[in-house]
Request: fold
Amino acid sequence: MESIPAADTRPAADTRPAGDGGPTAESSLAGPFQRRSVSFVHRDHRLRPTMQRTWDEHRKRLMIDVPRARATTSVAAGFLLDAMRDFGREAPLVVEIGSGTGDAVVRAAQAHPGTNFLAVDVYRPGLAATVAKIVHHELTNVRLVDADAVQVLKHMLTPASVAEIWVFFADPWHKARHHKRRLVNPAFAELAASRLAQGGTLRLATDWLDYAEQMREVLDAHGSLTNPYAADPGFAPRFEGRAMTRFEEKGLASGRAIYDLEVRRD
Ligand SMILES: C[S@@+](CC[C@H](N)C(=O)[O-])C[C@H]1O[C@@H](n2cnc3c(N)ncnc32)[C@H](O)[C@@H]1O
Reply:
C-alpha cells in the first residue's frame, strides 16, 4: 500500500509526475519547514544521453532560470516573469500547468505564433522532451519553468496578466486518501482567477469524473469565474486546441470519459 512520507528533506531532490508511484512531499534545500501537500511526486531527473545533449545545449535559452526560496520547486518571492527579457517581446500569454512532455504546448505554439506560451512542470525528462520538440520545430514563442505551478502563479505572474491557463490531466489523484493533493481546490481557483486578465480563460481536462465534478464545483463557487456551459452538466466541449496526449489515450483506453471545463474571468 502506498504511503505519504511525513517530510522529505532531500536536497535538490528529483521529481516525477504523479500517478506512477507513491507520492512524496516537496523537497527542501535547507531542512524541514512548513509544507503543503503538492500535486506532484519526486522522480528520477536523469536523461538519456541524446536528450541530455539537447538539454545542455538549449536549456539556458529556453528555460527561465528561477531563483528559489527554500524548496527546490519553489520560486523566490519578487521574481517576476518579464516578457521582454524572457520571450524577447510582449504578447498574450498562455500558461500550461503540468505540460508533461510538451505535446499540447508545442502544438499550440505552432498554431499561434503570435502568442507567448509558458510551460510549467517539475518533471525534468518531460521538460527536456519539450525542449527537444521546441528545437525540432524551431519555435521562438515557448519558454519553460521547472517549478511548482502554484509558486509560479503566485510569484512570477502579476495579477490580470495571463490570457489563458491550461491544466490538462495535471494530477491524477483519484484515490480518496490522496484527494488533499489535488491541484484544483478553492485556493488554486482564487490564485488562477487573480492571474487571468479580464475575459481570460481557465481550461481544464481530466479523465476522472469525481475530480471533474470537484473542479466544476470549486470553479462554480468562485465569484469572478463564469462557466459558459453552466447548464447541466457544466462541462465544455473538447477544447479543439488540446492535443491528444499519452495520458488522455491511457484514460480512454481504460474506458474512462474525458471531461473538459472552461471558465472565463469576469
Ligand atoms: C499526468 S501528467 C500529464 C501531462 C500532460 N498535461 C499531458 O496531458 O500529457 C501530469 C504532469 O503535471 C505535472 N504537475 C503536477 N502538479 C504540478 C505542479 N503543481 N506544478 C508543476 N507541474 C505539476 C507533473 O509533473 C506531470 O508532468
About this structure: The beta strands are 93-97, 116-121, 142-146, 162-168, 196-206, 225-226, 259-265. The first helix runs from residue 49 to 62.
